[in-house]
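Entries read chain and fold; for instance:
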Amino acid sequence: MEPKHSPGDGLAVHTQVGPDYFDDPDRDDAVAAGVRLVNAFRRFGVDLDSISAETVCHGCSPAVKHAYAISLGTVPHTEAEAMATQLDAFADEFERMHDALASQSDDKPATTGSTR
């Protein structure tokens, strides 16, 4: 903080601030993580409409050490069911593909050395 000046001393000498004065790297990091999470879920057909980056009340939750947390918001149970169904469908397909690949590799003889 700059020292107090009286009107008789003239104006205080200071540098002007710009919009970056209000930058919040902690919030920027939380938003970037939230964006990545939303985009990852969208790849599976799940949209998180209520997601937000919220400041953490350290008096309310001393276990959280970060300035911001990602909140998924309020998700009605019908939407939660639809999201779970969508994610389960992808998980089932991945499991099916994994099992198919595993059974194919079981049928092939093991090779050693170069295949050239």
The first strand starts at residue 52 and ends at 55.
